[in-house]
Design brief:
Elements lengths: L5 H137 L5 H21 L1
């Protein structure tokens, strides 16, 4: 194999080193700057994306904390509204009970007064009827006719006698 010949091998190594050096110089001059620039640009984009993601995460955490605070505030407000509604309902219930109790007592008092009036009226009617009956009996007993003044006087005396008899009971 000729490539392993010492004479041929040394010159081949020399030209390979020279060609490799030229290749490195061309790459360094023309290929590496755009590649390095692309890598730096990509690194900047990645770094910016990471920073933006961190800012977004912080913003999201802040919004979450705000949302939770608002949610807690809304829950407390709802509890306050429910408690207020319960208090109002209880107060209305108590007011209705008091109003109904008062109305019941008023109706009971009116009924008692009405019963008392009717009782007095019935007693007065009974007295008048008793007086008329007494006059009729007295007329028949005496067999004479009484004047209007006599009727009135006898009626008063009969009513007074019945009233005096009832007050003694």
């Amino acid at each position: 194999m000729p490539q392993f010949d010492v004479h041929f091998f040394s010159s081949l190594i020399f030209w390979e080193v020279v060609s490799f050096g030229i290749l490195l110089w061309v790459l360094y001059k023309f290929a590496f700057p755009p590649i390095l620039e692309a890598l730096e640009t990509r690194e900047r984009k990645i770094r910016d994306s990471i920073e933006q993601a961190e800012q977004n995460r912080l913003t999201a955490e802040q919004r979450l904390a705000d949302y939770e605070a608002k949610l807690n505030g809304a829950a407390q407000e709802a509890e306050a509204i429910v408690a207020d509604a319960k208090a109002k309902a209880q107060r209305l219930l108590e007011e209705n009970e008091q109003r109904l109790r008062t109305e019941s007592e008023r109706i009971q008092a009116e009924t008692t007064q009405e019963i008392e009036r009717e009782r007095r009226k019935a007693l007065q009617d009974i007295r008048n009827e008793a007086a008329d009956l007494a006059l009729t009996v007295a007329e028949k007993v005496l067999a004479r006719s009484l004047s209007d003044d006599d009727h009135k006087r006898l009626a008063r005396e009969a009513v007074q006698a019945v009233a005096a008899g009832e007050s003694q009971k």
